[in-house]
Amino acid sequence: MEGSMKNLFDPIGKVALVTGGTSGLGHAIAEAFLQNGVDVAVCSRHPESAPDLAELAEKEGRRYLPVYCDITKEEDIEKMGDIIEKELGPVTMLVNSAGMNILKHAEDFDAASFNKVMSLNVLGTHNVSKMCGKRWMIPAHKGRIVNLSSAKAFLGTDRDYTAYCASKGAINMYTSQLACEWAKFGISVNAIAPTFVVTPINADRLANPEFYNSLVKRIPYGRLGTGKDMAAAALFLCSEGSEFITGVTLKVDGGVTSMQ
User: Fold this and answer.
1) Which of 10, 23, 69, 225 is least surrounded by CB atoms within 10 angstroms?
2) Burial 98-119 (b: 16+ CB within 10 A, else e)
3) Around Cβ 9, how many Cβ atoms within 10 Å?
4) Range of the domain at 109
């Protein structure tokens, strides 16, 4: 007998940290955690910008903690860790959702802009993972980390995504390496690679009917992704039943990367 199969998809703990959790995919993931019995801390440079999450937490009987943090700065991250530990306790689940893109042609992509994208998307992911691992997950010998990759880690496009694609490719390899290093501590590390989802990072481009229709045509499922799609994947990868899954980049993309 394999033992009890009950509650396989329950979260592994009661406290999650979602970076970039006040908007976009991070917001949807924070919502999902709150609705599934988890207390949630979100960090953002605009922590006051999601009062609806505070309202949802009250409705669900959960605790919600928005914290200011620039995840490219280690001193900010340590202060954030102190605040979360005091208010909510140890974090067992981390979703690195904070990210950005700067739309420029490759031939015009200056070093400062390129570094800004890489710093937030890659270094920021490492900084927060390191803090959560060292402070809470390694001592507890338990944890789940989910990074936000992208279908653009696998597929190029005709313009404007040089730094973004590079950063998400780096996230895939970072996820694999951290999974190898931290498996011995009982920590699984995975990534989610969405296709296009309407978020502030791409809303302007998706408002163009020609661009929108060209995307949908390439997706076998015939639609863009939703925040719910990504939240479901994050919940699964943070569940009791996902323990033996690590180092994986899960394509939540309606089949677009299989079609190319």
Assistant:
1) 10
2) bbbbbebeeeebeeeebeebbe
3) 12
4) 15-259
Query: Could you say which of 64, 161, 164, 174 is catalytic?
Result: 164
In a domain, 6, yes or no: no
Closest CA to 96 of 216, 230, 251: 230
Inform me whether the pLDDT recorded for 206 exceeds 90. Answer: no
Q: What CATH number is given to the structural domain containing 216?
A: 3.40.50.720
Report the Cα–Cα distance between both ends of the chain, in Å, rounded.
Answer: 43
| Mean pLDDT for the stretch of residues 44-71 | 97
Chain segment 158-200, per-residue pLDDT in tens: 889 999 999 999 999 999 999 999 999 999 999 999 998 987 7
Domain assignment of residue 220, yes or no: yes
Reply yes or no on whether the pLDDT at 152 is more than 90. yes
- Domain membership of residue 2 (yes or no) is no
Integer angstrom CA distances of residue 12 from 142, 143, 153, 188: 9, 8, 28, 11
* pTM for this entry: 0.95
Tell me what pLDDT residue 1 has.
Answer: 54
Tens-digit pLDDT profile for residues 61-97: 999 999 999 999 999 999 999 999 999 999 999 999 9
**Number of domains observed in the structure of the chain:** 1
Q: Is residue 250 part of a domain?
A: yes
- The answer to whether residue 164 is catalytic is yes
Strands 249-252, 187-194: pairing is: parallel
- Answer whether 23's CB lies under 8 Å from 29's CB: no
